[in-house]
Specification:
By secondary structure, this protein is an alpha/beta fold. The protein has 2 domains: 109 residues, 3-Layer(aba) Sandwich (Rossmann fold), CATH 3.40.50; 106 residues, Rossmann fold. Helix content is 44%, strand content 13%.
């Protein structure tokens, strides 16, 4: 039996980002055998109402769908919940209300904690419209947040969702990261889970925080049982 609580993943936003998160969970365990890994329950639901449309245009809220996913995962045995989608954290309260006894690991808090370890005077975020409109990082960061140009980031994210993470997309994101660094950002957060599927540390001149990787690390830390409870 692995020394971890069962993890429930509220995913599908998008599917490739969820798969990336699962791979990072696997890579993050110092495993010698299968049974060293945590049990992971995944609801990868690509039909959650669009977060950008909800935040920017008043379209259907994703909250009820996220709450139903959380409730279902807990019902299957999840003892801890994580959601590899930055924008959907705008409706995290719906998840917490649906599963009040189950810890929910915040991707936003995890990424901010890793960014602040570098002691930046300002943080740049490459994020989509809902994340910016709801000021998810601005409310969580103790230093100023510089937002990437949505006219650059959103088309890049859309391209990645459509399967294109090639040179042009990477160059567009790298160029926007460079602009934020020039404006004073000491750290860049890939604040959309599609961004690190194209952009890597080698493309950025300051520390790049992969929010998906930060969430994976925080989730494993939160899920790990105390030594006295481990087999």
């Amino acid at each position: 039996m692995a020394p971890y609580r069962t993890i429930g993943v509220i995913g599908g936003m998008g599917p490739a980002a969820t798969a990336d998160f699962l791979a990072l969970l696997v890579a993050g365990v110092a495993a010698a055998r299968d049974t060293d890994h945590p049990r992971v329950l995944v609801d990868s639901n690509p039909n959650v109402p669009d977060r950008n449309a909800a935040a920017l245009h008043g379209a259907d809220s994703p909250g009820p769908a996220l709450a139903a996913m959380a409730h279902g995962l807990v019902g299957q045995g999840a003892a801890l919940l994580a959601m590899p989608c930055n924008a959907a954290h705008g409706w995290a309260d719906a998840i917490r209300a649906a599963a009040p006894e189950t810890p929910f690991v915040s991707m936003i808090d995890a990424a901010v904690a890793e960014a602040m370890a570098h002691k930046p005077r300002a943080i740049g975020v490459l994020a989509v419209g809902a994340t910016l409109a709801l000021d998810l990082y601005g409310r969580a960061c103790p230093v100023p947040v510089l937002a990437g140009d949505l006219a650059v980031v959103q088309p890049a994210v859309n391209a990645i969702k459509a399967g294109d993470s090639g040179d042009a997309v990477r160059a567009a994101l790298a160029g926007e990261a460079a602009r934020l660094v020039a404006a004073g950002a000491g750290v860049i957060i890939a604040a959309c889970t599609e961004v690190p599927l194209a952009l890597g540390q080698g493309d950025v001149t300051v520390p790049l925080i992969n929010s998906t990787a930060a969430l994976a690390r925080a989730t494993l830390a939160a899920a790990r049982l105390p030594d006295r409870m481990a087999p």
